[in-house]
Every structure is written in structure tokens, then in C-alpha cells.
Amino acid sequence: MPGIQNTWANRVTDRGMLYFFLLPTFAFLLFLIVFPLVWSLYLSFCNYSANTANPPVFIGVKNYSFLFQQKDVWERFVATGEFVLLAVIFEFILGFGIAMLLNREFYGKRVLTTLFILPMMFSPVVVGKFFRFMLDTNWGIVNYILGALFGIPKIAWTTSYEYAIYSLVITDVWIWTPFIVLLSLAGLSSVPRYLYEAADVDRASGWFKFRYITLPYVAPVLTLALLFRTMDAFRFFDVIYVLTEGGPGYSTQLIPYYIYIYKLAFSYWHTGRSCALAYILLIIVIALSNIYINYLNRVRRA
Q1: C-alpha to C-alpha distance for 222 and 229, rounded to whole angstroms
Q2: pLDDT per residue over 158-195, tens digit each?
Q3: What is the pLDDT of residues 67-92, one digit of tens each?
Q4: pTM for this entry
Q5: Using N-to-C axis directions, what is the helix angle for 271-301 and 215-233, rounded to 10°?
Q6: At what angle are helices 164-189 and 109-117 packed, to 10 degrees?
Q7: Which of 171, 161, 118 lies closest to 140, judged by CA?
Q8: How many Å apart are CA 302 and CA 79, to the nearest integer?
Q9: What is the 3-state secondary structure (H, E, C) of the chain?
Q10: Do residues 31 and 39 make contact, with C-beta atoms less than 8 angstroms apart?
């Protein structure tokens, strides 16, 4: 029939159908992601408590100025920076070193690679509980091994101001070093083998091949790995809750723990201040991410 060609169904293009099906999903994701960000940003400028029926009262930047004047907030930022720096450095060194060892053919390579990646598969809460037993002062296996092999006296890993932060670093390194291994192996596998063969013909040293062949090729992947791990380390929370519970005192209350648990959000119910502190942390992470991205762009241009 001639009139059928003029119907709405025949006028709809493939691209129009694509938008028709994607629009509800896009709208849902927009509401799920953007709305909490916008709402929490608004609350960061308000005097608001989530456990009351009172509406938010706009107070400008008073939440931010209050937080910047608190000594304990600056101490938490210093502790968070110390944790992130130590954890990311050790994960990078161990992860890339293990990847270099695994980047060759030998018997049992697949099994060994799988074993190295396994820690990343466990729930962080389970790992935190596991390490709490291992690092116990009196009957933990870590102190037992250190005392039996090296004669080191017992260390209060999770209950002393001096070592509590290192217990978090050890646990995070055990969990996320496999992530660096995985990305490093992907980068190393992309290096053309003929470059090594040409270097062998020219009798190049191992350091020369690593400096001028391996490193330039894997540098972009390593930069991405550092970017992801740095961003994720700033969100470190679940292991703290299980392993040290923020103690002793406030020594392991990193910023994520300080924001979302007993202090601001759920102990004192200062919802507006906790949102402000969350956005301060977000700005720091964005700034660090831009540094990584700028370096990555320079590496790619080189």
C-alpha cells in the first residue's frame, strides 16, 4: 500500500532506534551518578544533619573554612598522604619486578601467574580480618617468623602508634600488587621481540635494553597503573574498618575513614562537613590525576 511508506515506523532510522533504546539507560545512569554528586556538593555548603528532619540551611563556605582550621583534619591528610605514598611505591616496585620475572617462558608460568593474581580476587574485608590475625602481637604468624628467623622482638603491628600505619600498607600491598603485575605484563607483552633481537646482534647490555626498549614501551601502561592505584588508595576504607578500626587513637583514621564513619558522617552527624571534606579529597585526587595524565601525554609524544 502506498500509504504505508509514510507511517512513523518507516520514517524511523537505525540511528533513531539506537537513541530510543539508549535514552532510558542514559537517563537512569545520569540520575544515579550525577544527582548524588550535585546533591552532596550542595550539602557541602549547607548546615545539615542527615538524622534530623530539618532542611539544609545554606551557609556558604563555612564548612570548608571550619575544616581547614582543624588541626586533626590536617593530621588525617598527612597520614593519608603517607599511606598512599608508601603503598603505591611498594606496589609499583614489587608489581613491576614480578612482571619482569614472569615475562618469559618457563614451566609452570601460567600457574604461578594465577597465584600472584589471586590476592586481588579476595574481598578486602576478608583480607583485613585475615591480616588482623596474622599481625597479632602475641600469637600472629608474622611476629613468630620474625622472631624465629631474625630474633626480632614482638611488634604491636595494629595497636601501636608507630607501626599501625605500616600494617595498613602491608595489607594494601598484598591486595593490590597483583593489579600492577597484571598491567605490567600487558605492557611487557606488547614490546616487539625483534627490537631485543636487534639489540642482541649489537651486543647491547641488559641495562641498555631495559632503558631504551622496555621502559619506553611500558611507560604509558605503568603511568595508567600508578594513576588507578593512587586514586583507589585515597579511597582506602574497608580494610581500616576491619584491621585497626581507625586506632590506636586516631593514627590510622585516614580521610575516607574520617569522612564516612564515626567522626563526621555517622557519629556526629555533620553531613554538610563530611560532604565538604569529601570534595576537598576529590579536588586533591583530580589534581594528582592531572599530573599523571600530563606525564602520560608527554611520554606518548616522546
Answers
A1: 10
A2: 888 889 999 999 999 999 999 999 999 989 988 888 88
A3: 888 888 888 888 889 999 999 999 99
A4: 0.83
A5: 180
A6: 140
A7: 171
A8: 36
A9: CHHHHHCHHHHCCHHHHHHHHHHHHHHHHHHHHHHHHHHHHHHCCEECCCCCCCCCEECCCHHHHHHHCCHHHHHHHHHHHHHHHHHHHHHHHHHHHHHHHHCCCCCCHHHHHHHHHHHHHCCHHHHHHHHHHHCCCCCCHHHHHHHHHHCCCCCCCCCCCCCHHHHHHHHHHHHHHHHHHHHHHHHHHCCCHHHHHHHHHCCCCHHHHHHHHHHHHHHHHHHHHHHHHHHHHCCCCHHHHHHCCCCCCCCCCCHHHHHHCCCCCCCCCCHHHHHHHHHHHHHHHHHHHHHHHHHHHHHHHC
A10: no
pLDDT in tens, 104-162: 888 888 898 888 888 988 888 899 999 999 999 888 999 999 999 898 899 999 888 88
What percent of the chain shows pLDDT beyond 70?
A: 92
Single-letter residue type at 262:
Y
Are the C-beta atoms of residues 272 and 266 closer than 8 Å to each other?
Answer: no
C-alpha cell read off for 90:
611498594
Name the β-bridge partners of 47: 57
Q: What pLDDT was estimated at residue 259?
A: 56
Tens digits of residue pLDDT in 252-269 = 878 776 655 456 666 677
